[in-house]
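Supplementary Methods. Inverse-folding protocol.

Structures were first reduced to a C-alpha cell string of length 371. This string, shown here, constituted the complete conditioning input.
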C-alpha cells in the first residue's frame, strides 16, 4: 500500500493540492478544476492518510477525490434531491415530519463527500452559518411549534462550530420545553477526530434535553483508532450514538465490506441506524447502486450478522415525501391452495391466510406451517 506522506496536517482543498500529494494526475487537472468550480473539495489529513494512492479503486479515495464523472448530470438528478426546500418554513429549518425538524446551522464540513445530497448547498462560497437574524427566526419557529420533540442539527456539519457557539445553540434549544431530543449528524469524529475535545463533548451535553450523535461513515477503515477513541469519549460522557451510511458503488457495495462496517460500529458501541440508498444528487450516478443490489446486500447481511448490526435500508423519496424503508421483504401471501382451515369461536370452519416467509439462508417456509 503506497501511503502518501503528508508533510503538514493541512486539509487538501484544491485539485492542485491533490496532484501535489499524488492523489490525481496532472492530466486530470482541467476536468478536476471544472468539478471543483461547482462542488467543494476538502480532504482532511486524517482521511488522506487512509488513502492508498497506488490503488485506483481505493474506497476512501472514491468518497473524497473528485472525478470527471461528476460532470455528467442525469435528468433524474436534482440540486435538492430529497425535497428540503418545500418543507422549509424559515431559513435553516426543514419541517418534514410533525414531531421533528432539521436545523441547518452551518454549510461547511470537515470533508466534502463526492456523493453528498446537499452538495449544491455546502462548501466555501455558500453562507458559512445562519446569520443572527435567521438564527433567531429559526429558534422562534421551533419555540412556536410545540409538536417539535426532536431537533436534528445538520448542515453542513454542526461539529464545525466552535464549542463556545455549540454551547449557546444547545442551551437555546434545551430552553424550549417541548424540545426533548437534540440529534447531531456529523462526520467530524472520523474526518477530524482531534475536534472532539473535552470542550466539544461538554458543549454537546445540556440540561433539559437528551443529546444523540449520528456518526456518518461508509467504510470500516474510517473507524481508525483515533476515530474510535473520539466516539468512545462521547459515549463514555453519556452521549448515545447511532450510525448512518450511504450505499456507494465501489466503496461498500459488497456484503463483506458492509458486514465489517456494521461490526465496526457495534464494536464502537454505535448502533447501526440507516443505510441510505444514494440520493439523486447531481453528478453522482457513478456512485449509486441499483435498488435490487441494495436489497440483495441487506439480505446477505441478515445471514451474516446479528440484529444488533442491522441498519434500516432507506430511500429518501424525491420531492420531500420523506424516508421509506425499502426492504427486502421477507413475507408474502402464499397462494390460496395453501390456505389453512381453522375454526371460529362459533365452530364454523373458515380459511386462515397462509404466508411465505424467507429465512436467513434464503429458504422459503409457510407460516403457519403445514400440519
Ligand atoms: S459531511 Fe455530510 S453534508 Fe458534508 S459533504 Fe459529506 S455528506 Fe455532505
Amino acid at each position: 500500500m503506497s501511503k502518501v506522506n503528508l508533510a503538514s496536517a493541512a486539509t487538501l482543498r484544491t485539485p492542485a493540492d491533490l496532484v501535489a500529494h499524488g492523489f490525481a494526475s496532472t492530466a486530470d487537472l482541467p476536468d478536476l478544476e471544472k468539478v471543483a468550480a461547482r462542488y467543494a473539495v476538502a480532504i482532511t489529513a486524517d482521511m488522506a492518510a487512509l488513502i492508498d494512492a497506488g490503488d485506483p479503486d481505493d474506497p476512501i479515495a472514491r468518497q473524497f477525490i473528485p472525478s470527471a464523472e461528476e460532470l455528467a448530470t442525469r435528468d433524474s438528478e436534482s440540486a435538492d434531491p430529497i425535497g428540503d426546500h418545500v418543507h422549509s418554513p424559515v431559513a435553516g429549518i426543514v419541517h418534514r415530519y410533525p414531531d421533528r425538524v432539521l436545523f441547518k446551522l452551518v454549510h461547511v464540513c470537515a470533508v466534502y463527500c463526492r456523493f453528498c445530497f446537499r452538495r449544491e448547498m455546502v462548501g466555501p462560497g455558500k453562507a458559512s452559518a445562519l446569520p443572527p437574524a435567521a438564527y433567531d427566526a429559526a429558534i422562534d419557529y421551533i419555540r412556536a411549534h410545540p409538536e417539535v420533540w426532536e431537533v436534528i442539527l445538520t448542515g453542513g456539519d454542526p461539529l464545525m462550530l466552535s464549542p463556545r457557539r455549540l454551547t449557546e445553540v444547545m442551551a437555546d434549544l434545551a430552553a424550549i420545553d417541548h424540545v426533548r431530543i437534540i440529534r447531531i449528524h456529523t462526520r467530524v469524529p472520523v474526518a477530524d477526530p482531534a475536534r472532539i475535545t473535552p470542550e466539544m463533548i461538554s458543549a454537546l451535553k445540556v440540561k433539559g434535553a437528551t443529546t444523540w450523535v449520528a456518526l456518518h461513515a461508509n467504510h470500516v477503515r474510517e473507524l481508525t483508532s483515533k476515530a474510535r477513541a473520539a466516539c468512545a469519549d462521547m459515549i463514555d460522557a453519556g452521549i448515545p450514538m447511532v450510525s448512518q451510511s450511504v450505499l456507494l458503488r465501489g466503496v461498500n457495495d459488497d456484503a463483506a465490506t458492509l458486514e465489517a462496517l456494521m461490526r465496526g460500529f457495534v464494536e464502537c458501541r454505535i448502533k447501526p441506524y440507516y443505510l441510505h440508498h444514494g440520493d439523486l444528487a447531481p453528478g453522482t450516478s457513478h456512485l449509486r447502486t441499483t435498488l435490487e443490489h441494495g436489497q440483495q446486500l441487506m439480505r446477505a447481511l441478515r445471514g451474516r450478522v446479528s440484529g444488533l448490526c442491522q441498519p434500516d435500508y432507506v430511500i429518501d423519496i424525491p420531492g420531500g415525501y420523506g424516508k421509506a424503508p425499502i426492504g427486502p421483504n421477507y413475507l408474502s401471501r402464499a397462494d390460496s391452495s395453501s390456505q389453512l382451515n381453522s375454526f371460529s369461536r362459533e365452530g364454523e370452519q373458515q380459511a386462515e391466510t397462509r404466508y411465505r416467509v424467507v429465512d436467513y439462508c434464503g429458504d422459503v417456509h409457510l407460516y403457519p406451517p403445514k400440519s
